[in-house]
Amino acid sequence: MNWHRRRVTVMGLGRHGGAIGAVRFLVARGAKVTVSDTADKAALRKSLEQLADLAGVRFELGGHRESAFRDAEFVVANPAIRPDDRHLQWAEAHGAIVTTEIELLLGEMSAAVVAITGSNGKSTTAAMLDSILRNSGRRTRLGGNFGGSLLPHVDSIEPDDWVILELSSFQLHRLHGLPRPFDVAIVTSCAPNHLDWHPDVAHYIRAKRRILELTMPSGCVVLNVEDAEVRSWANAVRGKWKGAVDSSLLPALGVPGEHNRINARLAAAAALAIGCPAESIDKGLSQFLGLPHRLEFITEINGRRFINDSAATTPESTIAAINTTTTPPWLIAGGSDKGVVFHAMVDAIARNVQGAAFYGAVGKTLSRACDEVQTMCPRTVVSTMEDALRWCWRRAQAGDIILLSPGCASCDQFEHYVHRADVFRELVLRLRLSTGERTLA
Fold it and tell me: Could you tell me the CA-to-CA distances from 168 to 102, 190, 341 in Å, in that order?
């Protein structure tokens, strides 16, 4: 694509700089760029600072205006923007092509691509596969929903590199007619999620299934056949499809839980399809020690162990965390409402936790769901995560685990799940200081 003097509106810069890579890429290629965002200059300060060296970019902040879309030839939409957004519909009606940062990337490179999606486990599976490929001598790039934008580095991506992209349902929904289809696709799971964005479950599933259509007919699709929904997709695969590698063929892992063994089995199957030898698979998986904010040990205070699983933004992730801990934990859960159902999560709570403190926008919803299953475990509804931590601390004994595994998005009280994890860590370390303990376990 020749972007020189093309009129492009980047819709949604984001407080965390989600579209910075796209803006810099387009400016470097001579496009006439307008950035439109509902947030004002003060709220976007950190993101704007990262673009301060660019000349010629027009910013329309504090609300989307017609002028940003009226003459645009292309609109690069932030993945979080809803599919029924009236500004996007207006732009398309006036002839603009709506695209995404992922499409920009795929149109600029010829490297092989592994695309990974799923309601749970996609980041860990991507990182495991990255470790395997690196051990096999291949050069890799991690991007998409996990790993950040690769657009600033697109000129250094070589044809024999392997690009691993973690793709959300938002991103897949907007991918159409890719100039560079995927060589390998992995689907880790599919359970209802993001129903505050998708109009219904069927729409969410269709978005996830698009990964099959976007993979080369000569490519390979790895499906987690232990997931009933994903298993039903097998007949829709155009090329080869594979199930996960048998668990007995895997080495001992440095991350706990059966869910991580499933992730490893999927990564191993993809690696075999790519042509990695068994030794690289063993070594790559053995060296993988987990990702931040996923069952991450923080510290021990007076015999109580504190675990940060802030990346658990779905009920299924929290169920996996509860089932992985070595002893029934004291659970801290809650956050913002994505329209999901909590029945399975509260069943796991009823069976496998010592007590639960629910906080945030869905705190009362979680407690009512527990009432329906008539769980007898102690529980409370509080306003904040700090209140929830304090409640668990007062009841936990030496040998107990206090687990933050929210099962929900973070945006009711935090900027994102990493911010939530940072606040939890700070609260725990403050608690340690208040007890007089001076060293981390």
Answer: 11, 11, 19
Whether the predicted pLDDT of 211 surpasses 80: yes
Q: What residues does CATH 3.40.50.720 cover in the chain? A: 7-99
pLDDT tens per residue across span 127-184: 999 999 999 999 999 998 877 789 989 999 999 999 999 999 999 999 987 878 999 9
Q: Which fold has domain 296-435?
A: Protein-Tyrosine Phosphatase; Chain A (3.90.190)
Provide CB contacts within 8 A for 15, sequence distance 6+. 39, 43, 44, 46, 47, 415
pLDDT given for residue 409 in this prediction:
93
103-287 fold: UDP-N-acetylmuramoyl-L-alanine:D-glutamate ligase (3.40.1190)
Q: Where in the chain is the domain with CATH 3.90.190.20?
A: 296-435
In the predicted model, is pLDDT for residue 380 greater than 60?
yes
Residue 395: pLDDT over 50? yes
CB neighbourhood size of 395 (10 A): 14
Across 316-413, the runs of DSSP E, i.e. the strands, are: 330-334, 355-359, 379-381, 401-404
pLDDT tens digits, residue range 99-137?
Answer: 999 999 999 999 999 999 999 999 999 999 999 999 999
Q: Which long-range contacts (CB under 8 A, 24 or more apart) does 241-249 make?
A: 242/269, 242/270, 242/272, 242/273, 243/269, 244/268, 244/269, 245/269, 245/272
Report the pLDDT averaged over residues 229-252.
92
Assessment of whether the complete model's pTM goes beyond 0.90: yes
Amino acid present at 316: E
b/e string for 31-40 if b means 16 or more Cβ within 10 A?
Answer: bbbbbbbebe
Hey, CA dihedral for 11, 111, 123, 173, is it positive or negative?
positive
CB 44 within 8 A of CB 37: yes
- Name beta bridge partners: 221: 185, 241
* Residue/partner pairs of 259-263 with CB below 8 Å, 24 or more apart: 259/120, 259/121, 259/320, 259/324, 260/124, 262/121, 262/188, 262/224, 262/226, 263/121, 263/124, 263/125, 263/128, 263/188
Q: Which amino acid is at 349?
A: I
Domain boundaries 7-99, CATH class: alpha beta
The CATH 3.40.1190.10 domain(s) of the chain lie at 103-287
